[in-house]
Amino acid sequence: MGRIKKKGTAGQAKNFITRTQAVRKLQISLPDFRRLCIFKGIYPREPRNKKKANKSSTPSTTFYYSKDIQYLLHEPLLQKFRDHKALAKKINRALGKGQFKGASRLEKNLTPRMRIDHIIRERYPTFVDAVRDLDDALCMVYLFANLPSTEEVPHKTIALCQRLCNEFEHYLIVSHSLRKSFLSIKGVYYQATIQGQDVLWLVPYKFVQRVTGDVDFRIMATFVDFYTNLLGFVNFRLYTTLGLVYPPKFNQLSDEQGGELGAFTLQGHGLGQEEDQDEEITSVTTNPKAQAIADALAQEEAGAIEETSQNEDSSMAVKDTEEAPVDDAPADLAGAMIPGSSDFDQALQLQVDDTPYATLFSDMSVFLSRESPRHALEFLLRSFGCKRIGWEESLGDGAFKSDENWSGWTHQVVDRPGAPSTGGSAPHDETEAGAQSAADSQQRVPDRAYVQPQWVWDCVNAGRILRTDLYARGATLPPHLSPWVKAKKGEYDPTQPLEPADTVDAAEQEEGAAQPLANGASKEEEEEEEEEEESDLSDGMQEDLSEDEDESADETKADIDETLGDLSDDDDDDSASVSSAEVDRQSHQLELEAEAAGVKPSAKKSAKNAKPSAPAKSEKAKQKEREARKEQEEVERLKGMMSKRKRMLYEKMQYGNKKREDEAEKLKSKRRKLEATKQRAGGKS
Amino acid sequence: MSAPGRGRKRKLLTRQPEETVANVVDETERFASLELDDSGSEAPSVASGSASEVEIEGEDEEDSDNEGESNGKVTGLIEEELRALKPTRASRSRRNAAGANGEDEEASDDDAEDSDEAGFEQVDENDLELNYTVSTDANGNPRYIYKEIEPGYETDDSDAPDNENTIGDIPLTFYDAYPHIGYDINGKKIMRPAKGDALDTLLNSIELPEGWTGLTDPATGKPLELTQEELEMLKKITRNEIPEEGYDPYPEMFDYFSRQTEIMPLSAAPEPKRRFVPSKHEAKKVMKIVKAIREGRIQPYRPPEETEEEETDPWTFDVWADEKPRPDHPMNVPAPKLPPPGYEESVHPPPEYLPDQEEKDTWLAQDPEEREKEFLPSDYDALHKVPGYDRFVKERFERSLDLYLAPRVRRSKLDIDPESLLPKLPNPEELRPYPTTCAAVFSGHEGRVRSIAVDPTGTILASGADDGTVRLWELLTGRQLQRIRIGDEPINAVRWRPGRDALILAAASGNEVYFVIPLTIPNMTPAVESASRTVLDMGFGHATGKGDTNSASQKIPGSTWSRPGSKLEEQGVLLKIVVRATVKVICFHRRGEYFATVAPSGQSHAVAIHTLSQHRTQLPFRKLKGLPQTATFHPSKPLFFVATQRSVRIYDLSRQQLVKSLQPGAKWISSIDLHPGGDNLIVGAYDKRMMWHDLELSIHPYRTLRFHTKAVRAVKVHPGGLPLFVDASDDGTCQVYHGRVVDDLMENATIVPLKTLRGHKVTSQLGVLDVDWHPRNPWCVTAGADGTCRLWT
What we know:
The structure holds two protein chains of two kinds. Chain A is an alpha/beta fold.
């Protein structure tokens, strides 16, 4: 016989450690522990048996995996934290003595520089692991890129976040790895596929974010600290795999003028690097000049817009050819890189893979109106291959052309109210638009498609260019659907038409049937209320054992059914008669309406047709109902023989299914109603 | 010797062994005679004292002055002070005493005299001289008596006490019994100093002597007294001050070498030349630096630029340059990704996803934490109308909290078809026949029908209801044959007596049981009628035997058997039994000779077994555990089943003992019924379930069936051999089961639910109250709280 095992020396009691114990073991303060946990990605666990893990003490606590904490003991950051604490003491002492200069010197010289690259390596042993975990990082970094600088969020952090975001976007543009995007009420969702991993992130709309008091920015800042590091390394890796220099060249001037994406210039590695650089630098510097000239010309000839001068056009064309390679980074790069090198191959591979995504907007020139979200559109269009994107100068630097009237624009994104153009041909509208508002001032340019921003998103998600007339200015847009929802069996799919069985009149029938039933129920209730609580069996409390009261609806039904023994037939007749009466009434109503509107024989006909068909249909429905009831009974029969545990499990599953079905049913019925009203409206008009 | 007694205060006590007389030699004003407490124990030691000893207690002011001076030099800790103080004081006082003695009595103490003289000699003369004298001791041997060493500056041991107690570090209490308190270096006894008596202490307390501390010097046993100076010094030491009197720790500094040019300089030497000649050494040093600057080794100082440090990006290398995939650890739980947005989150969702007014209101009324969705789907017809999402930061923050604070656990998602959980049961169609449809409705009762019974021939149905009537119906048609009004109280139970020879119906109303011979029914032939009458009347012969003392019922008369009265007799009610409490259940023994009544509120009279032929009542249970609910007889063995609230107890009637106690596990049993085979028992309970007990298997149920949403009120097994049983519940339904019992002991009974019979209306939470089978056919009859009975075929 072996030794008697002592309690609490093995298993769960040993594997888990409470937070207090962990903090004591590490000898750090709780905020430091929090930072360490965030950096190292250590999270609490839920032990399988809490009592065992807590050594039989009952209060609820947070548990960490013991080995995680043990591992933390050797963390180099821990020493940095201690150094920091020591420094804080020194600075405090200096301040107490009034030695402000000394304090600042201490702070400057002794502040420990924390590097967390080893942690990134540790947490993500491979690059793919890092990409897999990029969702939260991107969301957070994008949020901070859009925050105003405050005391808690220093300007530096924001600038860094903005830079990283733009760099990442540049990568996506070059590699054409953006896949889907979605306009949600929270912000814009983007999904990219990087090295086979789907990365989904959310970018807020450009508004001032509401910050409530219960948001602790210290925690957020720790996360951002980690995420910016992670994203920096990821960007480095992404750029280098494409053969690009990281960090890309950043033009401060352009950024200050709102260049955003345009403030960065990508450079390739390799032999042609120097030439590239020169070219790019010159191009960047010349770009605003050219723009200025173009703008000046445009202003001069503001009066005569319709006849855009030939020479200007040609000059533009010349510029176009000049500038094309600038924006066309990947093509440029491919030229610059040495064929045969691994980088080159990879980049080529990427491009070959992504052809459908790379060419979606490639033969379009898009002008973004002032009111459209420029950054999101620019990013989206460029990542799907659009080379020529222009916007007004007031929107910022970096436009291909800021002249709205340039004849080369094939599409213009507008987001302002206005009458939708009736056809694809613009000339009809010109007068209308001119009459409508002088503020618009710009007349419609022929051969240019005016679309609302949603068109771009829908095109991206559909993977093809959609009809522009549906998205014309002022038009009622088709619903914008999330590209990630895959309709499962039994769930409602708004893209599919309603099933033929659930037609409009079925819905109406339902509506009609609901009313008498409800009346019956209320009557029944009244009756019950009238009945006073009679003395029960003299046993008294025996009824108490069975508590829940049954609702009255079932009872009434049962009552009706069972009086003559045969359940179904009687019931069928009953409700069938009700429904037929209802249908009669409705058809009559329809006839009256038709007469009032002006006689339409078809309506009458349909009403008459409906009359004989209704009972048949109800018969069918009854049949269905009967079967359903039978099935229900069978299930009940079987359920009674299950063990309690199994039954609970079964009921839980059924509950989930039922909830889903109810949800779908609710949506379906809503749609039915909407369609019915639409039909009615259509019929009336 | 220093001059003794210059105006000193002295307390002197001389004690002679022969005559204990205190000879006070003192011219001062203070006189105190201290009497030692001369107890018997003291006497021998006193007697044994070879010589009179003089002890002095007291201090003279001068001495203390001297000591104060001498002590002034001593700086150190208290102990050292005390140690230093003691010997000098003691020696001095002793010397004083010796001097005094010398004046008064001649050579009272030789030793002291000698030593004193020797001491003087020693000091005065050379060291070469012997420092001892030889004398003879009591035995006539030579005894060397050393002179006392006078501590002086020339002696090594300057603080050696001259009259030290040599007993060592033992408590003085060891000497409590002796007049002395130790021995000095010469082995002489150091006598205990005299202690003051009560009066003295009182005087002392009134007028505290100078320097009184209340402490006793442990070495001498005398009260330790300190002078004012000593006290001051101690006080200073305790305050961490320098104990010396008048010491100034911060004396005025006199600046000898000040910046002021003195009129009279300290040195009158002229300024040396070197003060006026440039230093060659320095020139050398300067040249060295100049050279270094010229050579560019030393850059001229430039103040550090106040430009902000350009923090270089840390990401200048590929972290994943040599990546190696790491196998996943089971304890690694990656954070779950957020689900992608659905249709309802769109800025322009399909219209059916938009909430209507009602949904909007409920959403707004809900607490933000209870909301299923954190946003309301809304529709914007243009993108520029979409507002910012005000919970964005909050949601991000919550996500980050989740990432580092939420405990993670791996849960395996159960991905099974719920249908696969359902048990496989035979198709009920294969198990026909069983009752499925309602064939007849017996309506007529006003009030709940509490009990029904189908007669043994299977043609007549008897029912008892709240309206106090017992009605007889034709089973197949539902026609009412007879209506017997028994009383105003509800009829709780109706049962037919088993056996076809006589047709007798028992009905319980209140605490009375009536026996009815229905006269109007078609199969009541005269033969049957007479047989029935004989059965009922047989007992009247025994009625006289009431005086029997042997039966249990006689001690406390449990019942009275009588005719019910002419009015009822006309209707066929021929016998009435009155028991103590309201009878709820009647059950007949198979042969019809005995029947049992159960009255749950009757306490010791709750269960009664009646003998019909003798009109006799027995109360088998003096006391029952729990409230009895129902009872039944075993069909073949002399066993009696009594169901209390929680258990079913089986008694052997012949041996009068408990055989078994079944534990169905229900909270409150409503009814029980035995399978005709006698080995299986079904139990219905108010807590919505029904139990099937195999009596040979276990005391726990073989199968528990939960088919009802409310209490099960009655259970019944088909008596005619068909494998059917049924229960009736308050939810208005009855469930019919197939329950086949095989003779083979190895095989368990097969139980299959067959059909739910729905038809009775639930009135005031009561549904079906009783159920009974047709004796042969697969038909059953139910009694409902809605006042009807139904026949199911």
